[in-house]
Amino acid sequence: MKFTDGLWLVRDGITINGAVQNYVVEKTSEGLTAITQTTPITGRAATLNSTLLTVKFHSPLPGVVGIKIIHHEGVQERGPVFELTKGTGDHVRIEESELETVLISGGLRVVIRKGEHWAVDFYRGDERITGSGYKSMAYITDKDGNTFMREELDLGIGEFVYGLGERFTAFVKNGQVVDLWNKDGGTSSEQAYKNIPFYVTSKGYGVFVNHPELVSYEIGSEKVKKAQFSVAGESLEYFVIEGPTIKEVISKYTSLTGKPALPPAWTFGLWLTTSFTTDYDEATVNSFVDGMAERDLPLHVFHFDCFWMREYQWTDFQWDERVFPDPKGMLKRLKEKGLKICVWINSYIGQRSRLFEEGKQNGYLIKKANGDVYQTDLWQAGMGLVDFTNPAACEWYAGYLRDLVDMGVDSFKTDFGERIPTDVVYFDGSDPQKMHNYYTQLYNQVVFNVLEEKLGKNEAAVFARSATAGGQKFPVHWGGDCYADYESMAESLRGGLSLGLSGFGFWSHDIGGFENTAPAHVFKRWLAFGLLSSHSRLHGSSSYRVPWEYDDEAVDVTRFFTKLKCSLMPYLYDVAGQAHEQGWASMRAMVMEFPEDPTCEVLDRQYMLGDSLLVAPIFQENGEAKYYLPAGRWTHLLSGETTQGGSWRKEKYDFFSLPVFVRQNSLLARGSVDHKPDYDFAEGVKFGLYSLEDGATTTATVRDLTGAPELSVKAERKGNTLSITAEGSGKAFTFALNDLGVIASVQGAEQVDETTVQVQAGSKSVHFSIELK
C-alpha cells in the first residue's frame, strides 16, 4: 500500500506520523521498550498535542528479535494469532552506552540510537544487514479515518528478496507490490492461495510480520531502497531473523512458527485421480488402476475428486450411491491392490447437504451479524462455511472424517479455504479480517489431527491448496489450478520455490496441468518435473490424466520416471527428514544451496532436490534445455557423464532424460526397489560417491519408515585413499565410485568390479578403505 507521492510528497488525504527522535529506552522483563517521538521536541510546549510510538524489543529465540510498534495501547487485540514458540529470553544480553542501547540475541545485534535522529540498526557481527531509519516506523491516517502502521527496512545494493508464500509472479520480489490476501486466483495471476508474511533476502536474514490479516508489502516499489510493510490498526509486530545463511534463517523461522510434519513414505509415490468434472464410477476407476498395472506403471495412491459425492451436496461425506453403490467394498478391493486412498473434501457445506441443517441448528456454521447463517451460491448453491473457531463444530466435522478413515480413506485433499468472507461473525469473536487468511490453518489442522489420531504419528498427510504462516506443519501442499502449457509449468515451479523459501518443506503440482488438456510433449516433459518433485500427482479438470490418453511413449516415460523416483527414496526420505527437522524445503531454490554464487540468486527454472541433486525441467517443445551448473564437478545421474560447472549449458534431451546432476562431494543413497516408495530403504541400498575432493568428507543417512536414522555412512578422502565408515543397520549394501577413477585395492570389503564394493550383512559397525589407482 502506497502512502507517498514520489520521494518528497504525501498522497492526498494521508497523514504520516513517523518516528524522528528517541525519547527514552527502558529495560523490561522481556527486553527493551523505546518511546519515540514523531515530532522533534524543541521545548516543553512541543510535548503537547503530539504523537508517540512505543517500540518493544524482545527475543523468543537466539538470532530472532521481535519488534512491536504501538500507537494506542488501549486497543483490544482480537484473535486469531499465529502460534509461535515462546522462549525464556535467557539468551538475551543488553548493553548500553552514551550513544546507543543494544539488544543482543545469538548472532543478531539490534542497536537503538540515542540522540536527535531515531534509528534502529540490525547487525550480524560488525555487518549492518538492515535497519529502520528516520520516519520509517510510522502511524498513518487517511481522509476516511482509517489507521495504519508502517515499517520500512533498508535494502542494500544488489540485495534480493524472496518468499512471501507461493507466488507465481517473478521469483525475485524486488519491485513488486504484494498484498497478502488468500484468493482462488489460479497460477497465472498475482493472487496466491498461500500468502505467508515472511521473506528472506540474499543477505542472509529474514523478516516475519506477525499478523494473519492483510499485510501490504512494497518491496522496493514505493521507495526503491526499502522493503515496506503495513497493516491496518494501531500496532505492528515483526521479527528479524538472522542466518547467516538462508538455510539457517528458514530453520530459525520454522523453529518460531512450526516445523513441517514428516509425511509417510507412501505419499512420495505416484498419485492418480479421477480428475475433476470427468464421468467416472467404480468401473472407470478400476480401468485406470488395472490399466496402470497392465502397463507396469507403479501406482501408489488413488484420489477421488469432488464427484465421489453427489452434485449440489458437497460437502456431505456420503458416496454417490448411483455410481458407487458399495464404497466400503470398493475401497477394500482397491487397497488389496496395494493402493492408498485419498478423497476430496472442503469446508463449504452446500444447502442440499445433510450437514447443512445440522450445522445450522447447532451453530456450527459461520454467521452474519444478524444471526443468520452466511450463505453464498459461489461454488455450491446456498453453501455455508464450517466455523472452526467453535470446538463443537470441529468435533462434528472431525466425526465424519473419522467415519471415512474407518471405511478405508488414508488422506484428504483439503481443497479451497481462500474464499472466506469478512462481513461475518465467528463463534469465538475472532476478527473476520484476521480470519480470512487464518481460516485455512484451522481447517487443515482439524483434518490433519484426525488422520494422525486414527492412523498414528508420521502417517498423516493432507493434500492442501491454501495456507498461512504455520501451515507448513500440515503437509502436503499443491500449487492449485494451472493451465496445461509450458508457461504454467514454469510459473508453478516459481510458486513452489517461493513457498519453499517461506518455510514449507513439501510441495506438489498437477502433472500435465489442470485446465485444458496438454499436448503429449508438454505432458511428458511435465512428468519428468513432477516425478522429480517432492510429491507427484496426475490430475486434471475435464479430461483424464492416465498416460495412455496421450500416446504410447507417455506410458513409457511415466514408467521410467516413477521407477526412478522410487529408487531414489532412500535419498528423498532423508531429504524429507531434513525438512521435518530443519524446515528446509525438499525442492530448494538454487540460492538456498549456493548463496555465494551471484548467478544462483535469480534462477527460477531449476532447483536442488535436496542438497545433492540439481534438476532443470525442460520447457521447450524441441527438448532444448538451458540451465546453469554452479562451480565444481557435476555428474549426470542418468548418463554418468561428468562435467565441470561454473557456466551455462544448452543441450537437447529426449523425453527420457533432462538435466539432473549429482553435486560433487555427494554420497547418494539409492534403493533396491523401484516399484513402490515405502520399503526397507537400508536393505541392499546402493551408495554412489561422486567426485570426492582430496581432503573432503561427505556423509549419507538412510532412514527407516518412521523417519529415524537407520544407517549412517561417512566417506573421507586423503590423496588416493578413501576411508568409509558405516554405522547402523548391519544390512548388506554396495558402494560405487563416480568420477574417481578405478579401484586399485580394497581392505575390509569385497570388490565387485573396478568401481564397486560390496559390504555383506553382519556387523552394525563397518570400516573399509579403498585405494584408487
From TrEMBL:
One GO biological process term: carbohydrate metabolic process
Keyword Endoplasmic reticulum among record annotations: no
Enzyme Commission code: 3.2.1.177
All residue ranges annotated as the Glycoside hydrolase family 31 N-terminal domain in the record: 56-213
Catalytic function, reaction form: Hydrolysis of terminal, non-reducing alpha-D-xylose residues with release of alpha-D-xylose
GO molecular function: alpha-D-xyloside xylohydrolase; carbohydrate binding
Entry annotated with the keyword Hydrolase: yes
SUPFAM superfamilies according to UniProt: (Trans)glycosidases, Galactose mutarotase-like, Glycosyl hydrolase domain, Putative glucosidase YicI, C-terminal domain
Alphabetical list of InterPro entries matching this protein: Alpha-glycosidase_related (IPR050985), Gal_mutarotase_sf_dom (IPR011013), GH (IPR017853), Glyco_hydro_31_C (IPR048395), Glyco_hydro_31_N_dom (IPR025887), Glyco_hydro_31_TIM (IPR000322), Glyco_hydro_b (IPR013780)
Glycosyl hydrolase family 31 C-terminal domain residues: 586-667
Family annotation (CDD domains): GH31_N, GH31_xylosidase_YicI
Keywords per UniProt: Glycosidase, Hydrolase
Family matches, as Pfam families: Gal_mutarotas_2 (PF13802), Glyco_hydro_31_2nd (PF01055), Glyco_hydro_31_3rd (PF21365)
Every Glycoside hydrolase family 31 TIM barrel domain range: 260-574
PANTHER family listed in its UniProt record: GLYCOSIDASE FAMILY 31 (PTHR43053), MYOGENESIS-REGULATING GLYCOSIDASE (PTHR43053:SF4)
Protein name in the entry: alpha-D-xyloside xylohydrolase
Species this chain originates from: Paenibacillus monticola
